[in-house]
Design brief:
Blueprint (H helix, E strand, L loop, with lengths): L12 E7 L8 E6 L2 E7 L5 E5 L13 E2 L3 E3 L6 E3 L4 E3 L21 E4 L2 E6 L20 E7 L3 H9 L4 H4 L13 E9 L2 E8 L5 H7 L4 E7 L3 E7 L4 E10 L5 E9 L5 H28 L14 H19 L10 E6 L1
Antiparallel strand pairs: 1-10, 2-3, 3-4, 5-6, 6-7, 7-8, 9-10, 11-17, 12-13, 12-18, 13-14, 14-15, 15-16, 16-17
Helix pairs in contact: 1-4
Length: 345
């Protein structure tokens, strides 16, 4: 498996690349994912595609060129590539020259569009792993926000999954006062490459859900590699679902995507309020991981405790086992066992 000694990324995984709405028909978008320059686009027929953003000739970014809905033309020498990455034209090449356009191609990436999300498979020398099982009760995407966290993937993921920071980072005079912690008891069970928190009543100090959904909401949450959190909270009438995904840009920056689905009545005003709240939450989490990043300049040590930090420990164990599975062709084993965890948050 090709892997830089400097990176800490998981390969052979489905990552979130973008929202479906970001990629319009006949358009392309340039991204950097796991340190690789990538183009994602839709052909004029509406078909999604993804190829490397490096022209194999001199390394020029193909996204700086033009896309006519079928082919991308490099701005430097006019080399053209179709949506599967095959070179179709080298303007400077004579017919008697050895290498012709059809001998050349750039890497292409498998994509899947699901729940209003474009997923990309970042692979090396392996068959494509199955797409993760994500519960979708005909959820229609209502809102999408994202933010670049100035940290590596591990800090972003573990910072977001940490269950004990809410009463200190995400406080509000309306739904949660600072230092207002309550005892929690959760049943956690393994899933293929992660774990799930079984359905439980939302804590009495999480008033935001009651304000939004009313009644007595219940939640279930799943976490799975490479850095996905999926929550579904329901009452007897309404639901809210949120999917948060961390996608590395490089070793020092991570895109945090947050997709929201609900059936609560309310128009543009409700979306406006929820968007402001979601952005505020992401900004607070982004600030918190910077606190950790600054401290880690002086000490890499982490003193993880039971049971509040149990899921952080699990993330690192899962990641280690997946890396071994990819590099050694070993069988992947999920080290997580069903557990009853208790903490205050």
């Amino acid at each position: 498996m090709h892997k830089s000694k400097q990176d800490n990324f998981l390969r052979n995984q489905w990552y979130v690349a973008a929202s479906s709405n970001e990629i319009e028909t006949g358009c392309i978008k340039s991204l950097v994912i796991l340190g690789e320059p990538i183009i994602i686009g839709r052909s004029k027929q509406g078909e999604l595609f993804s190829i490397s953003d490096n022209c194999p000739h001199r390394g020029t970014l193909l996204s700086l060129g033009t896309f006519d809905g079928s082919e991308i033309e490099c701005p430097y020498h006019g080399w053209r590539f179709n949506t599967s990455g095959k070179c179709t034209l080298i303007p400077s090449q004579m017919k008697n020259h050895t290498q012709q356009a059809n001998d050349i191609e750039v890497k292409s990436y498998p994509l899947k569009e699901y729940m209003g999300i474009i997923w990309i498979y970042m692979d090396y020398n392996k068959n494509v792993e199955p797409f993760p099982k994500i519960e979708n009760k005909n959820f229609f995407l209502k809102l999408y926000v994202k933010k670049t966290f100035d940290c590596n993937i591990d800090l972003a993921v573990t910072g977001l999954m940490d269950p004990a920071h809410g009463s200190f980072v995400h406080t509000s005079s309306i739904w949660r006062k600072k230092r207002d912690t309550r005892e929690k008891k959760k049943i956690l069970k393994p899933i293929r490459n992660g774990w799930k928190i079984e359905t439980h009543k939302v804590s009495s100090n999480s008033k935001a859900y009651r304000l939004f959904l009313g009644s007595e909401p219940e939640s279930k949450i799943s976490y799975f590699l490479p850095g996905i959190r999926h929550e579904i909270t329901t009452t007897n009438k309404y639901f809210y679902s949120g999917l948060t995904a961390c996608t590395p840009i490089d070793n020092s920056k991570t895109t945090v995507h947050h997709f929201m689905y609900w059936n609560v009545p309310g128009g543009v005003f409700l979306k406006f309020i929820i968007k402001k709240l979601a952005i505020n939450f992401l900004n607070q989490d982004a600030k918190a991981v910077i606190w950790m990043k600054e401290g880690k300049k002086y000490s890499k040590r982490e003193f993880l405790i039971d049971d509040a930090d149990l899921q952080i420990k699990w993330y690192y164990k899962l990641k280690k086992n997946w890396s071994r599975y990819c590099s050694d062709n070993d069988k992947f084993t999920n080290p997580i066992k069903e557990t009853v965890a208790r903490w205050k948050s």
